[in-house]
Design goal:
- The protein is mostly helical.
- It folds into 2 domains: 56 residues; 177 residues, Isoleucyl-tRNA Synthetase, Domain 1, CATH 1.10.730.10.
- The chain is built from 10 helices and 5 strands.
- The strands form 2 sheets. Strands 4-3-5 form a 3-stranded mixed β-sheet, with no helix packed on it. It has a two-stranded parallel sheet with strand order 1-2.
- Strand 3 and strand 4 form a beta hairpin.
- The longest helix has 24 residues.
- The protein is elongated, with a radius of gyration of 24 Å.
Length: 281
């Protein structure tokens, strides 16, 4: 690696004695492990800094600091606007976060008012904020961090496709069923033969622990993002083909518990993505 110039040249200090990024990053890396006793240091930095961080980590090893191998660069790519327009301060293409969240909340409020006009003003505002933040976060997390993400309003606020509102709406549907039922029945033995949609939903729920572990092991939040969408889709199929509240007693009991398990798993998945789960919408 060193012979083939994999690491090239890393300047630590300028000839006039002024510092560079490496001047501070090297002692900071050592300080984090020695004083804060961390097991691993993950650098969430632009993919364009890959060579620089590779140099820093290697230099730590060469200095005899063994924990250099426990430093990891979790790189990420840029976010584009539709039409392959790159957000760049140098080019004057800047999107301010305050403007973005205000626009997202405004658009989400329109949708909430259309879907459920009976909600109070405060409820509409609370739900709109949850939907807006989810719509902004999910498109960034549902794409591999090393690939360019394209943000599009229509897709971000889609209640029918792979987007946070679709997943949140599945959570709302599950909560609505449980609210109407009043209580969740205790588990009882049943000889009821499961429908295909119930088996599929059970299978999705059972995968949650493994998906979380795989996401953590690979530093890939998109694993959870994809899982949450697949679970919401499986619940939608179940919702359409398997009546819950009007089913016979034993079947109703089983489906209510399945609905409750789905709601909890959806909420857990969204929480791991930093997205809130509304009770109504």
């Amino acid at each position: 690696g060193l012979e083939k110039e994999t690491y090239r040249v890393l300047v630590i200090l300028r000839s006039d004695g002024t510092s560079l990024y490496a001047t501070k990053d090297l002692p900071l890396a050592i300080k984090k492990f020695q004083e804060w006793q961390i097991d691993k240091s993950i650098y969430v930095i632009d993919v364009r800094q890959s060579l620089y961080l590779k140099q820093v980590f290697k230099l730590l090893e060469m200095m005899g600091f063994k924990q250099g191998v426990d430093c990891y660069h979790l790189s990420y790519e840029i976010v584009n606007l539709p039409g392959n327009v790159t957000i760049s301060s140098r080019e004057g293409m800047i999107v301010m976060f305050d403007d973005l969240i205000q626009e997202a909340t405004k658009r989400a409020l329109w949708i909430v008012e259309d879907k459920n006009p009976s909600l109070s003003v405060s409820q509409k505002n609370d739900v709109a904020e949850m939907v807006a933040l989810g719509a902004l976060k999910y498109p960034m997390l549902a794409v591999d961090n090393n690939k360019v993400a394209t943000f599009d309003w229509e897709r971000a606020l889609d209640f029918e496709g792979q987007a946070a509102p679709y997943i949140q709406y599945a959570h709302v549907r599950a909560n609505s069923i449980l609210s109407k039922a009043g209580t969740i029945p205790l588990p009882v033995p049943s000889n009821y033969e499961l429908e295909v949609q119930e088996i599929s939903l059970l299978d999705q729920i059972s995968r949650f622990p493994d998906e979380v572990a795989r996401s953590a092991e690979n530093y890939k939040p998109l694993t959870i993002a994809n899982y949450a969408y697949d679970l919401a889709k499986a619940f939608s199929e179940f919702y359409q083909h398997c009546p819950v509240l009007k089913a016979e007693k034993d079947v109703r009991s089983l489906r209510l518990r399945l609905t409750a398990a789905t709601k909890q798993t959806l909420a857990n998945s969204l929480r791991l993505l930093g997205i809130m789960s509304p009770e109504v919408m």
